[in-house]
Amino acid sequence: MDQRPVLVVDYGAQYAQLIARRVREANVYSEIVPHTYTTEQLLAKNPAAIILSGGPSSAYADGAPSVGADLFEAGVPVLGICYGFQAMAAALGGKVARTGLREYGATDATTIGEARSILAGIPATQNTWMSHGDSVHEAPEGFDVLASTAGAPVAAFANEAKGLYGVQWHPEVKHSAFGQTVLENFLFKGAKLEPNWTTGNIVEEQVERIRAQVGTSRVICGLSGGVDSAVAAALVQRAVGDQLTCVFVDHGLLREGEAEQVERDFVAATGVKLHVANEQERFLSALSGVTDPETKRKIIGREFIRAFEAAEKAVLAEAAAEGEQVKFLVQGTLYPDVVESGGGEGAANIKSHHNVGGLPEDLQFELVEPLRTLFKDEVRAVGAQLGLPAEIVGRQPFPGPGLGIRIIGEVTEDRLALLRRADAIARAELTAAGLDNEVWQMPVVLLADVRSVGVQGDGRTYGHPIVLRPVSSEDAMTADWSRLPSDLLARISNRITNEVDGVNRGVLDVTSKPPGTIEWE
Ligand SMILES: Nc1ncnc2c1ncn2[C@@H]1O[C@H](COP(=O)(O)OP(=O)(O)OP(=O)(O)O)[C@@H](O)[C@H]1O
Ligand SMILES: O=c1[nH]c(=O)c2[nH+]cn([C@@H]3O[C@H](COP(=O)(O)O)[C@@H](O)[C@H]3O)c2[nH]1
Ligand SMILES: NC(=O)CC[C@H](N)C(=O)O
Ligand SMILES: [Mg+2]
User: Fold this and answer.
1) In which band, very low, low, confident or very high, does the pLDDT at 253 lie, cut at 50, 70 and 90?
2) Can you tell me whether residue 501 is helix, strand or coil?
3) Could you give the residue range(s) of every CATH 3.30.300.10 domain in the chain?
4) CA-to-CA distance for 201 and 370, rounded, in angstroms?
5) Is 128 or 357 the better-scoring residue by pLDDT?
6) How many other C-beta atoms lie within 10 A of the C-beta of residue 178?
7) Is the C-alpha dihedral spanning 365, 366, 370, 371 positive or negative?
8) pLDDT band at residue 478 using 50, 70 and 90 as cut-offs
């Protein structure tokens, strides 16, 4: 059963993914499309409604991305947000200009007349989250002005007869107090949709889609022990059962006990066929002498694929399918991996995730990525739906490039051994304190090229600092540093500096994301 999507047209927004997510939270299916789509291409997706996102351009500037006025005649309900609101106004003959009054952050919006339309049920003065320098000065003909702010004479409008709506503020961010109400008013009152989409629909839809894509071919799935690949594998297993073999690559950049854990938890829970590829030598020699983070990521992405290729023969033999070919590679790629790798429309490349921006060009497998439009918490819900055990579904994320991007400097065997020990101590103490569920993840980072002076056993040491980076997050797109109890931090630092040779300092990272990212490379 294919759902008609609510399309989010991305004008290079910071928050396009958040809009899609909030729509899904309202139990309506949503997908993001680039602003380069023509009206015809948009309508070809048979959308139930369309939301135009914010963006960095000015609607009246030369070359600014515009909306075809014909979109508003197609009978599909449209909500414009910020830039999308301005572009809609401009396309329909309204006036957009700079007032000189910019509004960034918390801003009061005042309802004009009675609260109605997409503002139904919202107090006369509401706190909204703004980020704009341009404003709509005059609504297009046929539009009713619903609200204004100090800097935006027209801050919300509606043309009920045509199902067209817009707001200058960002209803998708949690800081807009009634943001979700605005979105739900649009979806349920404006577009008259039913809240009938759940993560259960993802399972049905993806299983069908995977069957259609894969047919009777052989499939491998890169399995890491993490949530995303476990859920992707479980979906594919449900779709094509025996055609699937999971491949766990031990690249030597893993944490203590990880390889054993994959066997124990995942294979036991699902009975899937597993092939373990011992590829420590391949990765370590490819990384030798490399210090630049993006170069490391690209090398790791490439060697992952080479390791999957090298495993093909053994996989086919183990499945008694000699003479066949592995055509498909399943990856547990999520939406944030895609956006950060610069895959969002107009979005910057922050870092190349090994499974997206780090893939080699000569990839011979066709990719199967059933989770590519989802966020981690949605993936966890899908995993629970598929009956995966709580230890897998609730597991903290661990990046595919592993400890390779947590050693700041060259990756060597000695440094890996040192970091592995420090990481095991930190994780054991966090678990012992009963705080595993309080943190999203806690990278432990070795500053391999930094040394500082210490005194240990009355002697001078010149050792490395270990950084602890516990963070809290909802979806890894933004994060804050976790306020862990200081006695726990003290215990971790004390144990690491006592037990790990070569480390004489424990450091706590107190940076949010942004400006920092979660990992250091
Ligand atoms: N050691 C590995 N062996 C095989 N495939 C891997 C390995 N590490 C990562 N992958 C592949 O790369 C994908 C992305 O890795 P990533 O770490 O983001 O996801 P995950 O490990 O499945 O989940 P989590 O984010 O919870 O750790 C995985 O879903 C998996 O397909
Ligand atoms: O599979 C992955 N391949 C990668 O290359 C990669 N880089 C970062 N991460 C994980 O993604 C989330 C966001 O991390 P950053 O704030 O460091 O970008 C965090 O959960 C990181 O651990 C990765 N996962
Ligand atoms: N966040 C936005 O969409 C900004 C829209 C437009 N660039 C402005 O400054 O008004
Ligand atoms: Mg992982």
Assistant:
1) very high
2) coil
3) 406-508
4) 13
5) 128
6) 20
7) positive
8) confident
In this structure, the number of other CB atoms found within 10 A of the CB of residue 66 comes to 14
The amino acid occupying position 365 is: F
Beta bridge mates, 103: 132
Residues 6+ apart with CB under 8 A from 481: 469, 470, 471, 472, 508, 509, 510, 511, 512
Distances (CA, A) of 4 to 50, 59, 183, 228, 344: 11, 29, 17, 25, 22
What is the pTM assigned to this prediction? Answer: 0.79
424 is in an annotated binding site: no
To the question of whether residue 230 is assigned a binding role by annotation, the answer is yes
Please classify residue 285 by burial: count the beta carbons closer than 10 Å to its beta carbon, then call 0-12 exposed, 13-18 middle and 19+ buried. Answer: exposed
Give the residues surrounding ligand 1 with Cβ less than 6 Å away: 222-224, 226-229, 247-249, 251, 331-332, 337, 355, 395, 397-400
Residue 311: its H or E element: helix 293-318
Query: Does residue 172 have a pLDDT over 70?
Result: yes
Beta strand pairing call for 244-250 and 273-278: parallel
**Cα torsion angle, 163, 81, 178, 94, sign:** negative
- Number of helices (H), then strands (E), in the chain: 15, 21
What is the model's pLDDT at position 1? 42
**135 three-state secondary structure:** strand
Provide the strand spans (E) within 122-268.
125-138, 144-148, 156-159, 164-167, 218-222, 244-250
Range 199-393 classified under CATH 2.170.150.40: no
**Angle, to 10 degrees, between the axis of helix 227-240 and the axis of helix 376-385?**
40
What is the predicted pLDDT for the residue at 363? 92
Residue whose CA is at the smallest distance from ligand 3 atom 8: 132
Whole-number average pLDDT of the chain = 93
Give catalytic status of residue 281 as yes or no.
Answer: no
- CA of residue 249 to ligand 1 center, whole Å: 10
Residues of the chain with CATH 3.40.50.880: 6-190
User: Using CA of residue 330, residue 334, residue 336, residue 338, what is the dihedral sign?
Assistant: positive
The residue type of 327 is: K
Active site residue 170: yes
Q: Answer whether CATH 3.40.50.880 is correct for domain 6-190.
A: yes
Peptide bond just before 34 cis, omega within 30 deg: no
Domain 406-508 in CATH 3.30.300.10? The answer is yes
Is 315 known as a binding-site position? no
ipTM score for this prediction: 0.88
